[in-house]
Structure formats: structure tokens, C-alpha cells
Give the backbone structure.
Amino acid sequence: MFLPENIDLAHSEEYNLSIRLAPDGFSFVIHSSSDPSVFHYQGTALGNKLSTTDHIKKVIFDLGFFSQPFKRTSVTVVTPRYTTVPEVFYDRKKVKELYLFNIYREENESVLTNNFREGSCHILFGMEEGLHLFLSRNLWNPQFLHHSRPLMQHFRKRAAALEKKCCFVDFHDRSMTIIAFSGETLLLANSYPALNSHDTTFYIASVWEKLNLNQSADILFLSGDFASQKPTVEILNKLIRNVEQLEFNPPVDADQELLLRLPTDLLITLCG
């Protein structure tokens, strides 16, 4: 595999490896938190000939370097199969029971957890059991993250500086993740399909109404794949007074067009 000349995998312990597992694709970034010139992104669509797990196994075996000791290895799992549990109700001995209280059962599924400290809650999410075992064995000390966790962490910091309720909508992978805060308090985190402007607008408006957000005073922040959501954005600008589009400028030497295509959770990771 071709890598930039300044990335020497003999010194992999100096680099971060960030893997992203989406419903229809596998991608990864090699980057450095101290050297902007160290940056390589590669993505591949998942075909129909192999199962998701077998396809990812093939990519990892073909490229051959994923098991090296990177400084940090993270695996972001993009899935709507997740729920948030407040700290007061969380019991690590009953994780699967808590998960299945809100999510329908699927066979051969591992239930993983992320702690969202600032919101005093835990994110419980599902991942295909065979794939989880394979990556755990073939990556160097991987950290598994649900895609909503970096979004929640970053959006909380923005919301904390404002004295009003904020609703954040991130468009990605033909879906959207909606996260709302009142100050630093998490009000909601959920994902919905975003296949057409009618349904997408309906979901956002329903959340807005459910949380009793003010159309004139509160703020709607948008991020992610704007290109596929232009009709939706136009409608939202008519419905809500304060609509802002978030921009991210990670400290990496990369083509601007490529950065515009990267999902928000990955951009947040690159921003450190």
C-alpha cells in the first residue's frame, strides 16, 4: 500500500491509527498529534460478495500493518443501535439488560460501553460479536468508540459556553445524529434516517417540540454532510431563527476537498 514518504511504519508508536466502521464502508486515518504533515486517509466501500466482517478481515490482512503498536488505536463504530443510560441507573454487571431495555435483540452481538463523564451517563452500543473479537485480537490495544461519543464531547463544550438550549444535528452515512444540551446537561442523543428532506425535517422538528425548544431564542447547529441535505437546510432556515453551520479545521496537511468529505466524528478526532 502506498503511504506518504514521511510515514515510516517502523516508528508506528509515534502515530495514531483511527479506524471507522460505517454501515456501508471501512476507513482509516494514520495521523500524528504533534506533526501536521503526518496524515493519510483511506476508505473502501463494503461490497455484496463478502459479509461485513469478512470484508474487513480481508482489508486488514491485505494491508498488513494494523496490528503494529501505534501510539493510539481507536475504532469508531457507526450504528443506530445504541442508547444512553444515566449514571444513577447504570450497573456494569447489567449492561446487556440495560441495553436490551431500549434496543431489540440481535443474535451474536457484543454490547460495548463508553463513559460520557461530563453528561454523567454511559453510551451502550452493539457491535457484531465476531468482528469485535477479530479486531480485539488483531489490533494493538484498540479502544472502541460509538460515533456519538466524540460528537457529544465536542458539542457539550460548545453548549457550555451558551446560556440557552442547543440542538446539534450531524449528517452522516445517510443518517443524522441529534444531540441536545441545556448548558452542560445532556437532554437527548439519538440517530435517525436522513434519506429525504421531508422525513429528515420531521424528525428534527419532533425533537425540537419534544424538548420545548424556542424557535426564536434557541440555536440549531448543523454539521457533517451538507451536500446531501441542501433542501433540508433550506427548510430549517425558514422554521428556526438561529441556524448555524459548524466548521472544523483540524491541524493536518490535507486537501481541503478531502477534509470537507470527512465525517464530523473523524474531524473531531483529528482536532484532538
In short: The radius of gyration is 19 Å. Residues 77 and 198 are 27 Å apart (CA to CA).
